[in-house]
Design goal:
The protein is of the alpha+beta class and about 550 residues long. Helix content is about 15%, strand content about 50%. The chain has 9 helices and 26 strands. It has helices at about 1-30, 40-50, 95-100, 265-270, 340-345, 395-400, 410-420, 435-440, 530-540; strands spanning about 55, 60-65, 70-80, 80-95, 105-110, 115-120, 145-160, 165-180, 190-205, 205-220, 220-235, 245-260, 270-280, 285-295, 300-310, 315-320, 330-340, 355, 355-370, 380-390, 445-455, 460-470, 475-480, 485-495, 500-510, 515. It has a 26-stranded mixed beta sheet that branches. Residues about 130-140, about 405, about 435-440 and about 520-545 have low confidence and may be disordered.
Length: about 550
């Protein structure tokens, strides 16, 4: 037994000596080996492996534990020009193949990488190998890498066909288990890896995304991002100056694939997933807790089912964007039950004029054609209705029956209720919404029934059923709002009798920014005492004949 132990001890000593010799030899290689003399060979091997032109302008070096090769000022180009430039490159490599003048890379670190991806007018990317190779005998060269790290990188994507440019700044990336089964074919379809990425900023035209990060997984061209977190997404409409911002977005994207990378990616991408957004703001409009399922297939993107907190209530519906044709088509369906009228008014900058609950329904189709306004391609319905609402600062029945405090009162002030309902501030930008209440100087009243239903065609909103009833009166509105040219088109507000005929009426016309208030149903103007006009209208109505002004769903109060 003692002899056996002695032999084992000798064996360990010998093995340790061998290991020590290998370590010393490796150190000697690091110290004595001139890696720069192999720069040309390394460039050639890297170029053949990737199918790209690889050039190392700076010095190269060797490192130990683990063994690696470093290089400065590296440039990679394709047929269409430069693709990648690096401040510093570090490659982890196996030692023995290198001694046989072979480069077997195990890891890669990129510092200060600047990537440029260009898609030409024919749909080819600058990193693709344009030379057609025979597929006989199997696929092209395979490529693998244990780990890829990128720090403080940037990326620019340019689509020469559309002229659109997308920029990413301060990218940090870690990818493990990277493999490309066929570098001669479509790389996007033959790549597999796991990893994560974070980016400080992305810009594309009027769109800006800040601070996003995600975990990624790809298996032979099928990609998953779970989750993709975005701190802020903002869109600035340079024509109107309006900014739309979404905050704290969390996306899950599953099974993303691109059917045909040579064509329009938008029309060839497929994925499913879901979205969760804490907040969306556009001027005074605020929507919270936006959640929905996502699906993209053949250029059709949908959010369904979609829920949100809006106007102090829960909204639900769906949104679809069809980009499969030359002209994009959007479909929006939203129902909001028991919304808060005060919150609704706050969305267009007015506070506490009406309070109570109501229901909103929107079903819109918007066609984006050429450079025309999106509003011009808008069709659908938009309506709001509610019962037992409270009017603050004015008693409408008192104003309409006695007119004791308002000889300057405009009936169209009341009509603003209908415009301000579903259409928000679009048609009220130049109208002093709420003047009637301040002129009345106090009071509180009730609206027992309220309906504001509009049909929109090519950006023109037609009042199909717009009326409300107080305890003693009924008011209705007719006419159109041209949202494209921003004009009132023969909008008329009327105080009704029990037959739906106008006791008296008044019109508003002209541009939203500077509307003109018309005369009442007689030839006299509103500069005359309103009480006299009311008496004239009353005498006219008592003649026994009238043209029915309104026959909608709001009933005359008893």
């Amino acid at each position: 037994m003692k002899a056996i132990r002695t032999e084992r001890k000798k064996g360990l000593i010998i093995a340790g000596g061998v290991v020590a010799l290998i370590v010393i030899a490796a150190i000697a290689v690091v110290v004595l080996f001139d890696i720069n003399s192999y720069k040309s060979k390394i460039e050639t091997v890297a170029s053949v492996t990737t199918g790209l032109d690889v050039r190392i302008n700076g010095k190269m070096g060797l490192s130990f534990f683990p063994f690696g090769i470093s290089a400065k000022d590296v440039h990679i180009a394709g047929k269409g020009g430069g693709i990648l430039s690096l401040e510093r490159l570090k490659l982890g490599a196996e030692l023995m193949p290198l001694l046989r003048k072979q480069l077997k890379v195990t890891g890669c670190e990129l510092d200060g990488a600047a990537v440029i991806i260009v898609k030409d007018a024919e749909g080819k990317y600058n990193f693709e190998n344009t030379e057609k190779k025979s597929t006989k005998g199997g696929p092209g060269t395979a490529f693998s890498l244990n780990e890829l790290k990128l720090s403080k990188g940037s990326l620019v994507y340019l689509d020469k066909k559309t002229g659109e440019k997308t920029e990413f700044k301060e990218i940090n990336l870690v990818v493990k288990g990277l493999s490309i089964t066929d570098t001669s074919g479509d790389v996007i379809k033959h790549i597999s890896f796991t990893g994560n990425i974070d980016c400080k900023e992305m810009r594309k035209k009027d769109l800006k995304i800040e601070n996003f990060k995600t975990s990624m997984k790809a298996v032979k061209g099928i990609y998953n991002f779970e989750p993709l977190a975005i701190r802020s997404l903002a869109y600035l409409d340079k024509k109107t100056g309006e900014k739309t911002e979404l905050k704290e977005i969390n996306l899950v994207i599953k099974d993303l694939s691109i059917v045909d990378t040579s064509g329009d990616i938008i029309k060839n991408v497929f994925f499913t997933g879901n979205i969760d957004c804490k907040e969306m703001r556009k001027k005074d409009l605020k929507i919270d807790s936006i959640r929905g399922g996502i699906r993209a297939e053949k250029g059709v993107f949908s959010l369904k089912p979609l829920t949100m907190d809006i106007f102090g209530a829960k909204g639900e519906g769906d949104v679809t964007a069809n980009k499969s044709e030359a002209d994009t088509e959007y479909k929006i369906n939203v129902n909001v039950l028991k919304l808060d009228f005060e919150k609704l008014q706050e969305s267009f900058g007015v506070k506490r004029l009406i309070s109570g609950k109501g229901d909103l329904v929107a079903s819109l189709t918007i066609k984006e054609k050429g450079g025309r306004s999106l509003i011009k391609g808008m069709d659908g319905i938009l309506s709001i209705q509610g019962n037992n609402l409270i009017t603050h600062t004015v008693d409408l029945d008192k104003v309409l029956s006695t007119f004791e405090t308002s000889q300057k009162f405009n009936l169209v002030d009341i009509g603003a209720f209908f415009v301000a309902g579903p259409l928000g501030s679009a048609a009220l930008k130049g109208y002093r919404y709420g003047d009637v209440y301040y002129q009345a100087q106090g009071g509180q009243g009730a609206i027992t029934q309220f309906v504001s239903h509009w049909k929109i065609k090519s950006g023109e909103a037609d009042a199909r059923d717009c009326a409300f009833a107080t305890r003693h009166n009924r008011i209705a509105l007719k006419g159109k709002l041209n949202l494209v040219s921003e004009r009132y088109d023969n909008v008329t507000v009327a105080l009704l009798d029990d037959r739906g005929c106008a006791k008296f009426k008044q019109t508003i016309s002209g541009p939203f920014g500077a509307p003109q208030v018309g005369v009442v149903s007689t030839v006299e103007s509103l500069a005359s005492p309103i009480l006299n006009l009311y008496k004239q209208a009353k005498r006219f109505a008592q003649a026994g004949k009238c043209e029915v002004f309104y026959s909608g769903s709001v009933q005359q109060p008893r």
